[in-house]
Amino acid sequence: QVQLVQSGGGLVQAGGSLRLSCAASGTPVAIIRLATMGWYRQAPGKQRDLVARIGNGDNTNYADSVKGRFTISRDNLKKTVYLQMSSLKPEDTAVYYCYAQIRGIVYWGQGTQVTVSS
To answer: Which listed residue, 10, 22, 28, 30, has the most CB atoms within 10 A of its CB?
Structure first.
């Protein structure tokens, strides 16, 4: 059973930085290498939106709202995906969820709150 465990997040002032981590377990490195991994976020009363994703070739995609401020990366040996968030804005406040798409199945992390104060 694949599990994703998130860490990081919390409260930060506008302009600050945070790093989120998401570690996978229950699947070997050889499988994680093939997975697309990424991050979504959901603000209160809004739908869950894609923030960033990274493919098995390390190709990346970002939401326009975070381009130039957020960086997604992965360490396959650690089976972990990261989201480095800089120049944070109050509108980045949301619950952030990591995901991994493995063999057509999407697995989700437990979610972590990021709150940016103005």
So the answer is: 22
Count of beta carbons in the 10 Å neighbourhood of residue 96: 24
CA gap 25, 3 in Å, rounded: 5
Q: Where are the alpha helices (DSSP H) in the chain?
A: 29-32
Which structure tokens are listed for 87?
Answer: 């120049």
Burial class of residue 79, CB neighbours in 10 A (0-12, 13-18, 19+): buried
Distance (Å, whole) CA 55 – CA 67: 17
What's the pLDDT tens digit per position in 56-108?
988 999 999 999 999 999 999 999 999 999 999 999 999 999 999 999 999 99
